[in-house]
Amino acid sequence: MTRRWAIGVMIFALLAVFSLPQTSDAQRYPKNIIRQTQATLNARGFYSGGVDGIWGPKTARAVRQFQAANGLPVTGTLEPGTIQALGLPAPPGPRPY
Prior knowledge:
Layout: H1 2-18, H2 25-28, H3 31-43, H4 57-69, H5 80-86
C-alpha cells in the first residue's frame, strides 16, 4: 500500500508541474521589444539573424552572450537588468496568459 501511495504522489506531482502554463519571452514581450532587442544586439555584434520580432534560438543565444560579456546573470531572457544594459525602454507588464 505504501508503494502504491508513493507512486500516486509522484504521478500527481508530475501532472501538477506539466500542467503549469509556460511563458516564453516570445509570449512575454511584444514583437516591437523583441525587434529592438535584436537590432541592438546586431549593432553591438552579438546577433546576426533577421530583425523580425520573433524570439528564437539565435535571439536567446545572443542575449546569453550579451549577458555574459556584460557581467549580467546569464539567463537568455530579457530580465530588467538586461533591458537596461541594452538601453531599451522598459516593456509593459507581462501579458496575461
